[in-house]
Amino acid sequence: MKRRGFLMAGAASLASPMFAQTDAWAGVSETAQGFDQCHALMVRQSGLVVLTERFRGPGLGGAVPIKSVSKTIVAALTGAALDRGELGSVTDTLGDVAPRLIPANADPRVFDITVENLVTMQAGLERTSGANYGEWVSSSNWVANALGRPFVAEPGARMLYSTGSFHVLGAVLSEVSGQSLLSLARERLGAPLGIDIPAWTRDPQGRYLGGNEMALSLDAMVGFGEMYRLGGQFAGVRVLSSDWVTRSLERRTQSFFSGLDYGYGWFLGEGAGVRYALARGYGGQIICVAPDIELTLAITSDPLRPARSGGYFGDLQRLIERQILPLAKSQIS
Q: H or E element: which one contains 163?
């Protein structure tokens, strides 16, 4: 399989970034304001805030729902577990690291599902997202329900967008670390990044939902993205290994819905000759990182309205590819 990645920028301190907005970004702000679902936008380039605007919705300082951007957070925590030796490799199987999670009625192939299958949503099991989501979260055991579903593809064969895969992955991380997903998120991401991570939804067994319902402030979203832009460092502190960040931004599969490539928790695209990585959540929640032009941005939107690839998400993708990336590229060259 062909894998495409990024040239990672060198690390730099991000403490107290300067604000350097210029008139060049006014057109981006005007376009974003015209989307009635869009709440706020922040753009950093070379460590400087070049644009921050709230158009509607909650104030800039508070945590807001990031929906499936949560999947990218769980992917980062997977890298943190690998860095600490709690997982040996992405080829570790459920049978190896978390056999207690597998229900008695599961297909025997569930034991061979790997960490990589989960973090790329290639487990092969029937999806828990879309039309199946309500039934899944109404079940008495979300992990068992996800793992007890029939196989609709072989593990590793293709991407099947499913929050259940990331919920299982979050449960695996709790199993191998002995900590809740909330504790892991706060200790391994929140503390080094200096961001607040509020508690969020838990399943009937008390496990925090992996892959949905987390909340972050706009600035925290950008800070998380900056850490990836800088190869896993933030303000001189190593948060994730550079190897994990590099591998995360390489193509592993492709989304049937958007056509974008997908790595470890990140959608991957290209615009204006610039490659970018995208964390995407329902309603139009976005973190976008383009290391080659030292760019990180975040967008928050109405979390109750859909943002399909042919609709509002398509508008945001065009804003990124046709306005933001060309402008940022011209500023760096």
A: helix 163-177
